[in-house]
Amino acid sequence: MANRTDIEFYKEWRRTSPMAILFIAIRRFRRVVRSVIEIVSLGGLTVVLLRFLDVGLVTAILYYAVAVLAFVVISAVLSFLVLRVKISEAGIAMKSGVFRRTHKVVLWERIRSINLESGPIERIFRLVRVSVDTASSMGSEIEIPALPIFVGQHLRSHVKEPQLTDSQRLPDEISATETSEESDDQSLYELRGKNMLIAAICSKGMIFATVLGIGFVLVITSNAYLIYYQVNLADEDVPTDTTLQEEVHDKLKEDLETNLNFFSALQQAWKWSAEERIENRSKSITQLLLPLVFLLLAFVVILIPSLIIGFLVKAAIFCVSHNDYRLRQEDSKLISERGLITRKTTTVEIRNVQILRIYLTVRSRLFQRYDVKVQQSDEDDTVQSAVGNAAHQIDIPCVDSAFCREIAEQIFPKANQQLPLDPRSTEIQRFSPAYFFIGLLGVGPLILALLWGELWFLMGTRAAILWSLVLVPLGTLIWWQYWRRTGYAFYENFILLRKGFLGHDLRVIPISKLQEVRISQSIIQRLRNRCTLQMFSHSTTYTNSLKIPFMNRVFAERIRDYLLFRIESGKTRWC
């Protein structure tokens, strides 16, 4: 009988290591933290505990934390008990699910990459988390936690590129194969020293980190005010038997009990706003605009330290997640390795690359560096990308224009010197001005009506008009800035799409990877003889399709017919 240290042991249905309980529990806990439903239920449960059980705010949160922890642990144990993995000559199979049983089978010929990830606890027990990616999956088809490391290495070595004849290959695939045969294992890029510092400064995800920084600043500010109130403003002559924390708790409980009735709270808000509108009638223009000035000053005062805190946090996270970053080419694969605490290895087949994305942010423009993303499928998971966990893609941070050109030619041999890879290139044509004006005149009045109604409810007619006269030009400027960053360009073998607000995001899409091309028209577009050209590559959906809005109808039909001819006449494997 085969033992657990032999690969033959896993040719029957087997459990993984019991350490999977810990890893499943961690994954479940992350889902709970990120879920809006759990956050809302936290507030609801806290209100119930404060109102009916007569417990303190801290105690209510602790009760909820214990309940969440118990749920996570119990569900992790149950999930582990039903989890089974089988490795056979045909492929990889997994059974999972407590209430809804799932049986997944992935054949070897469908697997395009196997990624291994190991955290500090997993490395101690010599375990890895295996992610199996297929051609038809947006994310990982199968994720197996806590497999022995030798099993993960065996699975990776088992995935082979299918052998094709030259008649079955495309010319660019033949060139790519010949290049890979010349150097079977070639180191392409390493991120160290000065480049690591620049990459940390220019790393994406600053908006998310800044939001966290704003929350941190607000917490510090509120606590500083409480301390100041306790030291300087509290009435020392009035005896009290309660501490400041108890007073705050009693006030919070009283407010919750008063405002639980939605209609009574709405009546109070309407009464307060009516009084405010009457009071604002006698105020001057300066007095009406003064709150806006204070609001902008407060925003700047809070935003600056929040940006600093967010920058430091994001830079620290980047240095930890991209520690000892290495990119190498092995046969026809690109392999990246990175991470200090969790060492992550990602593999991308060069022939399966669908899109090459080039980012140029405001900070990276100062250093003339680009961030490059190699994608096997056009998934756009913003949250996962911010933390560096998106599947089917390799991020290459902080590269210069020469390496950007080199990696593009390595992936797409037909990407010659005439193809502009600078997102600021003037060869990329902006979207039609009709897109800007229709967006401004079509959606703008609706937003203005909602904004004016809100301002009128809070401050009255005169104040609403004055505030709108200030905010409407600001909104117009923001929309104009977004429009001027957009653009597209068509070349013999590639399509370029550009978007952005402060920075630039350039997508390079090979025409050979397109699967479908559509033309759609809205009512406004029909009146202007305009249309939207939609292009679908592998794994794209209607929501994340490649779109060029407000194109001339005749020109768009010619482009569509040409692209469809290239798709139907080419002997192209999309993935």
**Count of discrete alpha- or pi-helical segments spanning 4 or more residues:** 18
Q: What's the N-to-C terminus distance?
A: 40 Å
Uncertain residue segments = 162-177, 179-183, 234-242, 378-389
Helix % is 40-55%
Explain what the structure shows.
- There is one protein chain.
- The chain has 575 residues and is α+β, with helices and mostly antiparallel strands.
- The chain has four domains: 7-166, no CATH class; 206-318, no CATH class; 325-430 and 486-569, no CATH class; 433-484, no CATH class.
- It contains 18 helices and 19 strands.
- The strands form four sheets. It has a seven-stranded antiparallel beta sheet.
- Mean pLDDT is 75; it is low at 162-177, 179-183, 234-242 and 378-389.
Keywords:
alpha+beta; 21% strand; 4 domains; seven-stranded antiparallel sheet; six-stranded antiparallel sheet; single chain; globular; 575 residues
Quick synopsis:
With 575 residues, the protein is of the alpha+beta class. The protein has 18 helices and 19 strands.
Describe how the helices and strands are arranged.
Blueprint: H1 20-34, H2 36-52, H3 57-82, E1 84-87, E2 91-96, E3 102-107, E4 111-118, H4 120-124, E5 127-134, E6 142-148, H5 149-158, H6 171-182, E7 185-191, H7 193-202, H8 206-233, H9 244-259, H10 262-280, H11 285-321, E8 325-330, E9 333-338, E10 343-349, E11 355-360, H12 362-367, E12 370-375, H13 382-387, E13 393-399, H14 401-411, H15 433-459, H16 461-485, E14 487-490, E15 494-499, E16 504-510, E17 514-520, H17 523-528, E18 530-537, E19 546-552, H18 553-569
Antiparallel strand pairs: 1-2, 2-3, 4-5, 4-10, 5-6, 7-8, 8-9, 9-10, 11-12, 11-16, 12-13, 14-15, 15-16, 17-18, 18-19
Helix pairs in contact: 1-3, 2-3, 7-11, 8-11, 10-15, 11-16, 15-16
